[in-house]
Amino acid sequence: MTRRVVVAMLVPVPWSPPGVDPAAWRAALAEDLVDLLARLAQAEAAIATTPADRPLAEEIAWPGMRIYEVPQVTVLPVLAAATADGFEQAAVIAADAPDVPGMILGKLLAPLESKAVAVAPGGPGGGVLGVATSLPAPEWLADHDLDGASAQLLRRNAPAPGDVTTTPPWRRLRGPADLGTLDIALEGWDNTRALLGG
């Protein structure tokens, strides 16, 4: 069986709802994503953090969960750490999508049997939800953060455009407009829900 890891990247969260402490909001978003990843059947879960955010990573990690400390919140250092840990496939997911369905993550990993890189767009707010690749990552894959990346950007250095495939998008909570898209019928995202009073 292929050894896979899905890594929650502690990305900057520049916005929080009115009356909600920004640090508490960021922690709730990240914890909800980590809780989802920890329950995935087909992959292990990990957290990627800069040294400054190490306390948050340790606070939300499940017992025994890997924490990858990286110099900046970009994809390649995380993929290198996962490679060193012996994983054969990895996905790096932005930790500001607390309600992402597991199916979306599964569809991000699925193309790796035939494609070098898969990208899940981050919805109307731009950026990407996540990037997945077989390990070690292709030498042509440029390093990007998840806020500024896109499938088009990642294709620029690929030997062929088809080496990078796009999977279904899922929006991240990056501003007021995204808040209205939360579906209370979806299970999970308990910490985020609690901060919003519901």
Q: What would you note in describing this structure?
A:
The structure is a single chain. This protein is of the alpha/beta class and 198 residues long. Helices cover 29% and strands 19% of the residues. It contains seven helices and seven strands; from the N terminus they run βαβαβαβαββαβαα. It has a seven-stranded mixed β-sheet with strand order 3-2-1-4-6-5-7, sandwiched between helices. The longest helix has 17 residues. The mean pLDDT is 95.
Beta-strand percent range: 15-25%
Shape: globular
Note poorly predicted spans: none
**Continuous helix count:** 7
Radius of gyration: 16 Å
Quaternary arrangement of the chains shown?
single chain
Average of the residue pLDDT scores: 95
Strand order in the sheet with the most strands: 3-2-1-4-6-5-7
Distance between the termini: 40 Å
Task: Give helix % range.
Answer: 25-40%
SSE pattern, N- to C-terminal? EHEHEHEHEEHEHH
Which structural class is indicated by helix and strand composition? alpha/beta
Beta strands, count: 7
Outline the biggest β-sheet: 7 strands, mixed
Summarize the structure.
Helices cover 29% and strands 19% of the residues. With 198 residues, the chain is of the alpha/beta class.
Structure characteristics:
198 residues, alpha/beta, seven-stranded mixed beta sheet, globular
What are the SSEs and their pairings?
Blueprint (H helix, E strand, L loop, with lengths): L3 E6 L12 H17 L5 E6 L4 H7 L5 E4 L5 H10 L4 E6 L7 H8 L7 E5 L6 E7 L16 H5 L8 E3 L9 H4 L10 H6 L3
Parallel strand pairs: 1-2, 1-4, 2-3, 5-7
Antiparallel strand pairs: 4-6, 5-6
